[in-house]
Design goal:
The complex is a heterotrimer of chains A (315), B (319) and C (600).
Chain A: H1 2-28, H2 33-38, H3 46-56, H4 62-74, E1 80-81, E2 86-87, H5 88-123, H6 128-142, H7 145-159, H8 174-208, H9 211-219, H10 223-235, H11 237-248, H12 255-261, H13 266-276, H14 279-307, H15 309-312
Antiparallel strand pairs in A: 1-2
Chain B: H1 6-19, H2 32-36, H3 38-67, H4 69-72, H5 102-138, H6 140-155, H7 158-168, H8 173-183, H9 186-199, H10 203-211, H11 215-251, H12 262-271, H13 280-314
Helix pairs in contact in B: 1-9, 1-11, 3-5, 3-13, 5-6, 5-8, 5-9, 5-11, 5-13, 7-8, 9-11, 10-11, 11-12, 11-13, 12-13
Chain C: H1 2-38, H2 46-73, H3 75-99, E1 103-108, H4 121-126, E2 135-137, E3 143-145, E4 148-153, E5 159-164, H5 178-191, H6 196-201, E6 202-208, E7 213-218, H7 225-228, H8 237-240, E8 261-267, E9 272-277, E10 290-295, H9 299-308, E11 313-314, H10 326-332, E12 335-350, H11 360-369, H12 372-380, E13 384-385, H13 409-419, E14 439-445, H14 449-461, E15 465-471, H15 473-481, E16 487-491, H16 494-498, H17 505-508, H18 524-534, H19 539-556, E17 559-572, E18 575-576, H20 589-594, E19 596-597
Parallel strand pairs in C: 1-10, 1-11, 14-15, 14-16
Antiparallel strand pairs in C: 2-3, 4-5, 5-7, 6-7, 8-9, 9-10, 12-16, 12-17, 13-17, 18-19
Helix pairs in contact in C: 1-2, 2-3, 11-13, 18-19
């Protein structure tokens, strides 16, 4: 009981710390949210700016602002965005749909693909094919992600004209959505797959040397049998942790992919909020991301303990 | 930014395993399997050695480019000629939008990119080691605190932090290095912690404690030297990951524009019409250089990791 | 034998389990997509979407497998793939094409962030089409009436009367009345921060149905009301008077408008705005049935869309089509370019509070040190010219031909010597009057990186040590407002040039603060000039004052203009009838009612 309680308190403490950082970080940034609200070409008097500040609650001393921030949190009220003229929770929910779709699919495809190929490569690491694939994936994980995205865009959307170059869809139908999302999802899955591939491969190589593998072979079980019935379960533990982490960061979107493919997702939303000093949106978004990341971390820990009984034994 | 962690991902598996050190002790010492495949092992080793040698060679080449750029670059990188020129005899990679020779810029950029990677990795490894050692050695409340702190740092986003620091201090390359270093020590800390957890049970550590040496002394002279061979590969991988992060941040315009790293070159190529004018000689070379440099570093890191595994396999039973 | 059977049996089982898991996953995902697709804006193609759904469910499965195959087999896998996808897409396009007439598509990099008609500033520019303001600027830069037939102003400049045109109707059939004008102006004054001056200074407003006019009485004289009213979009009173908080009002359309088109749909996920023909528009009928504005978050993609014919032209408020892409479009031979000299420009602002920049001789020397021809060549790729000392570009009303700026490092060095800046300790760097080496810090935002680099080089050449400091937009504003800089590169927008006392004075008058302005000139001569301009609407007087202002700029160089640039708009040769005004470029009503497709 103490183990789990300790973990939970630890995560809770982390979350509290994150809430504090969340509050201070946007406010430390230079720039006046009011000025950003108004725009470059407009001139408003100081008095007007003071009134705006009053309305938005920016003229209260920091401690009061913090207190109101905490009380809002407890009411699950994420605040109201100055720039996007809507409650933060609503904005986040709207953008989340599409972001979750394409990032979620990429993560799932990436881990399945990477895991599958990694297991195969780890099982027979010295075969030419395995070596080639390993090398290919290592190279891919070394490419700066936006570079690959740009190259893919230029090659497939422009030179070959196979795919459209922007947006989640042209008309909100499945066919259009799939057509538009194919390239970004591919690029993201490839990166995700390369990472999972390397982890799985290493893991399988390590598992291969265990006693039970030898025993299964002695029993007469064929290669694929040993691999997919026994080893994969043990070897996929690190993948699960990684997957959990990935899902945790799902909400942060994929900034570079969104910039390159002109997608209207969470990544760009957060980036604009940073550049525009939209405090409530920034706070809301970071809080959600931090919360899900911590939750995912905790789940991964618990899952790991659940699946691997050796971990549950006292130290 | 999760993509930048993909390099370290391969070691994260180890971290997960390490965190639950009980699993490690289960490793049997059966040699039968190994002996049977001895011949294949030899073959494996030789081609692996070749791989290692190529990556080391590549890495040395890039280091050479960083230390002695003037021997490889035909012109000074600030010299200006006719802009937007295609590759020719005089300019092997053509010129960019204000007339700098791209090849020279490329060669001098190595120094900056590698320095950023190296410095950031140094900071992150240092912090990670210190925190991991303390957490692993002292255990208890300190351990929980530090691990909780680690979780928090995992979530802090890089971009706003760079903007904040850039506003307070001079926006420059050092801000970049600082932020990259301060936010990526997590996996190093985890690994050091688990190793320290293992090692503190060793006989010689216990006897040192009996003799009354201070914890600081024990950590530096007994535990630390045994951790170095784990740290080295993590250090290399940290360099690789920092270089990719630097390239990404430069693309967003958050890097130091006066120091032309490869990432900044790519950013200019993109924003000043290099892609749209099909100037592949402008945008491909920096991207390829980043990829190969990171690749060579990562491969060296993997090579060191493999070596480390050998050590721990052959090494005496720790308990 | 036995082994093989065992093996295949096993593999099949494992494989089947895998397939089933995959299928479950995909089914759950697809069932999530369905509500997402249905929850999108009201598009009445339900039958088709159902068909597409069944088609794609299979497609997804096959795609996954072909993707894996593709990984190992290479190229062939992918091309097979895209066949399936493009079939589905082609079917889509077919259906949509049949239902509409000619469509005019415009690409823009200024994406709108929220579907708030009043609140989103980028949207405010595009809604000129559906809700035109009272006044507009014609191609030569003169303010003329758009929805207003004419206007007049009282002697003391406090009373403005606007006469509304007779043939304007809202897209829901109602007639546009002067009440709408009164309502809109008051509404903006009350609800939006940028029009709050209206709230502060409007004393009374009266509507006269007899001569279709509305009169605004201000509590102090205003000479620029006609210009201000060229930027406020007209709102239908009967729709908006029930809306409590307009800045927060979010809707994807349709919105009621009185222009030749009305805003039908805001689709943020597809990145476009759709305007449909206003059935009640009585003016000259536009040819295209629909106008679509497409948002691209990076400019290269917009260029490629132009090349592919996905869009017909490019528009950016207060910006030009990036010069680097012009060559590409020229090569295709499908494009013509509209070139207009911008009334905004890029200039080097100096911190006049700090020595040595407070010394006019020093500023002269700096002005001689800059190689303007090279800047024009590298920054505008030839679509610009070397500016005059008078700052104001030739496209502005009352332009005076002052002396052109000259590049002469020798003269620069001479001037510095004469002014008392010399290098006494022989380190190659000149010292200031305080004996210390002059170190210039050029503050720039990242978009002016190259200009900053070039300036750095030029200043080093005349013996001043200089370095670049980059800051993001907000840090830049903070530093500028606290006068914590030496030099900075900044751009003025067309509207910015017209602000305050016009001719760029809005940027320098130290009594005005704001985001993009320098507010660094405190010279009483300059301030008096600004006040004089603001006090009169007499064109002859304004002409004289304008000349005086430009002479002031030429003599004192409070800022050094770096280059004048042309605003270039590419348009597909298949269209003609484009009009461009200095304020909004091609995005004005004249363009939309006149542009038509011609047989190439």
């Amino acid at each position: 009981m103490s183990g789990i309680a300790r973990k939970v308190t630890r995560y809770f403490a982390s979350f509290m710390l994150i809430a504090v950082i969340n509050f201070t970080l946007p406010r430390l940034m230079p720039g006046d949210p009011i000025k950003n609200l108004i725009g470059e070409d407009v001139y408003i008097s100081e008095k007007m700016m003071e009134e705006l500040r009053l309305e938005l609650g920016l003229n209260m001393p920091l401690s009061e602002q913090f207190a109101s921030y905490l009380s809002d949190l407890l009411h699950l009220d994420l605040g109201h965005s100055y720039h996007l003229h809507a409650p933060v929770a609503e904005i986040l929910l709207n953008k989340m749909e599409w972001t979750l779709l394409f990032v979620g699919i990429s993560v799932v495809i990436g881990s399945l693909l990477g895991g599958f190929l990694g297991a195969l490569a780890g099982w027979k690491p010295k075969k030419k094919v395995s070596r080639l694939t390993s090398f290919a994936f290592v190279v891919i994980s070394c490419i700066p992600p936006y570079f690959l995205a740009l190259l893919t865009l230029y090659l497939f959307a422009f030179k070959l004209g196979l795919f459209p170059s922007k947006g989640f869809y042209d008309t909100p139908e499945i066919g259009s959505v799939l057509h538009h999302l194919f390239l970004p999802t591919c690029v993201m899955s490839v990166f995700s797959a390369s990472r999972n591939f390397l982890v799985m491969r290493g893991s399988v190589i390590q598992e291969k040397e265990q006693l039970y593998a030898l025993y299964a072979r002695a029993k007469g079980l064929h290669d694929t049998g040993i691999l997919f019935r026994h080893i994969i379960k043990n070897a996929s533990l690190p993948i699960i942790t990684l997957l959990a982490l990935d899902f945790g960061f799902l909400f942060s979107g994929a900034l570079f992919i969104e910039i390159v493919f002109s997608l209207n997702g969470m990544g760009l939303l957060i980036y604009d909020a940073i550049m525009g000093k939209d405090y409530p949106l920034l706070q809301g978004a970071f809080l959600v991301i931090a919360f899900t990341a911590l939750l995912a971390n905790m789940l991964a820990d618990l899952l790991y303990a659940l699946i691997d009984p050796r971990v549950r034994r006292p130290a | 930014m999760s993509q930048s962690a993909c390099i370290e991902g391969s070691c994260m598996k180890e971290a997960c395993v390490e965190e639950n050190s009980e699993k490690r002790q289960e490793k049997p010492g059966f040699k039968l399997f190994g002996e049977v495949s001895f011949r294949s092992f030899r073959k494996h080793e030789s081609s692996l050695a070749l791989f290692n040698w190529i990556s080391i060679l590549l890495f040395t080449f890039f280091l050479f480019m960083a230390f002695f750029p003037s021997s490889l670059a035909p012109y000074a990188p600030e010299e200006r000629f006719i802009p937007y020129e295609a590759p020719s005899g005089r300019h092997l990679l053509g010129t960019n939008d204000i007339g700098n020779d791209i090849l020279s810029e490329l060669v001098f950029g190595a120094r900056i990119s590698i320095t950023v990677g190296f410095a950031a990795a140094l900071i992150s490894t240092l912090i990670g080691t210190v925190l991991g050692l303390c957490a692993g050695y002292f255990r208890g409340v300190l351990d929980e605190l530090l691990m909780g702190f680690t979780d928090v740092v995992l979530v802090i986003p890089k971009i706003p932090l760079i903007i904040v620091l850039g506003a307070f201090l001079r926006p420059s390359i050092w801000i970049l290095i600082l932020v990259l270093g301060l936010l990526s020590w997590e996996s190093t800390a985890r690994v050091t912690r688990s190793k320290a957890l293992q090692l503190r049970e060793a006989g010689y550590v216990k006897s040192a404690q009996c003799m009354g040496f201070s914890p600081y002394h024990i950590m530096t002279s007994d535990i630390f030297p045994n951790i170095i061979h784990v740290l080295l590969p993590k250090f290399m991988l940290a360099i690789a990951s920092a270089m990719i992060s630097e390239a990404s941040l430069s693309f967003l315009g958050l890097g130091d524009i006066s120091l032309k790293s490869w990432g900044i070159m790519l950013s200019f190529a993109f924003f000043r019409g290099g892609f749209i004018r099909d100037m592949w000689w402008w945008y491909m070379p920096p991207g390829i250089c980043i990829t190969f440099c990171v690749l060579s570093i990562a491969l060296v890191g993997f090579g060191l990791e493999a070596k480390e595994k050998e050590y721990s396999e052959e090494g005496a039973n720790i308990s | 034998m036995k082994q093989r059977k065992y093996f295949t049996g096993l593999e099949l089982k494992a494989g089947l389990k895998r397939q089933m898991a995959l299928a479950m996953l995909i089914l759950t995902l697809c069932s999530n997509i369905l509500p997402a697709g249905a929850a999108g804006p009201e598009d009445s193609e339900n039958n088709d979407s159902e068909n597409n759904l069944t088609l794609s469910k299979e497609g997804f499965f096959d795609r996954l497998i072909t993707y894996i195959k593709g990984l190992y087999l290479g190229e062939e896998g992918e091309t097979q793939d895209s066949g399936v996808i493009s079939e589905a897409a082609a079917a889509d396009v077919q259906q949509s094409a049949d239902s509409e007439g000619a469509v005019l598509k415009i690409a823009t990099p200024s994406a709108i962030k929220s579907a708030s008609f009043i609140g989103d500033s980028n949207l405010g520019v595009f809604t000129h089409l559906s809700n035109p303001p009272l006044m507009k600027m014609d191609a030569e830069g003169h303010l003329v009436g758009q929805l207003a037939e004419s206007y007049n102003v009282s002697e003391n400049n406090t009373c403005w009367t606007f006469y509304l045109k007779d043939d304007l109707y809202w897209s829901d059939g109602e007639k546009v009345s002067p009440e709408d004008i009164e309502f809109s102006i008051r509404y903006y004054g009350k609800e939006t921060p940028w029009a709050s001056w209206i709230n502060d200074t409007l004393e009374s407003s009266t509507v006269s149905d007899a001569d279709n006019s509305v009169t605004f009485k201000f509590n102090k004289p205003y000479t620029r009301v006609n210009m201000e009213f060229a930027t406020y979009n007209l709102l239908p009173a009967h729709v908006w008077e029930t809306i409590e908080n307009p800045l927060e009002y979010i809707s994807n359309g349709p919105y009621v408008g009185c222009g030749p088109y009305y805003l039908k749909l805001i689709d943020l996920n597809a990145g476009k705005l759709i305007f449909e023909k206003n059935p009640y528009w009585k003016g000259k009928a536009p040819v295209s049935g629909t106008v679509e504005i497409h948002f691209y978050s990076n400019v290269d993609v917009a260029t490629l869309a132009l090349k592919n014919g996905d869009v017909d032209t490019y528009y950016k408020y207060a910006g030009s089509y990036p010069y680097s892409g012009i060559e590409q479009l020229e090569k295709t031979g499908d494009f013509d370019f509209l070139e207009k000299t911008d009334i905004g420009l890029v200039f080097l602002a100096l911190n006049l509070k700090k020595a040595p920049f407070s010394d006019p001789e020093f500023r002269e020397a700096l002005a001689y040190a800059i190689n303007y021809k090279e800047l024009v060549r590298l920054e505008t790729l030839g679509y610009g010219e070397v500016p005059n000392r008078g700052f104001v570009p030739s496209a502005m009303e009352n332009f005076k031909e002052t002396e052109k700026l000259e590049y002469s490092p020798e003269k620069a060095k001479e001037n510095l010597e004469k002014a008392g800046y010399s290098d006494s300790n022989g380190n190659g760097i000149l010292e200031g009057k305080d004996g210390k080496d002059i170190k210039l810090e050029i503050l720039i935002r990242s978009e002016y990186a190259r200009t900053g680099e070039l300036l750095d080089e030029y200043f080093e050449q005349i013996g001043l040590s200089s370095e670049l400091k980059t800051a993001d937009a907000d840090t830049w504003i903070t530093l500028k407002d606290s006068y914590d800089y030496d030099l900075t590169v900044i751009r003025s927008t067309p509207w910015g040039m017209l602000m305050h006392a016009s001719w760029g004075s809005g940027y320098f008058d130290s009594r005005r603060t704001g985001q993009g302005v320098m507010h660094n000139v405190e010279d009483p001569e300059f301030l008096q000039l600004c006040d004089d301009i603001l006090a009169t609407t007499d064109p002859a007087e304004l002409h004289d004052y304008a000349y005086e202002l430009q002479d002031y700029y030429a003599e004192n160089l409070p800022a050094v203009p770096l280059y004048w640039s042309k605003s270039v708009t590419p348009f597909n040769r298949h269209f003609e009838g484009w009009y461009s005004d200095p304020l909004y470029g091609i995005y004005n009503l004249d363009t939309f009612v006149n542009v038509r497709e011609v047989e190439a």
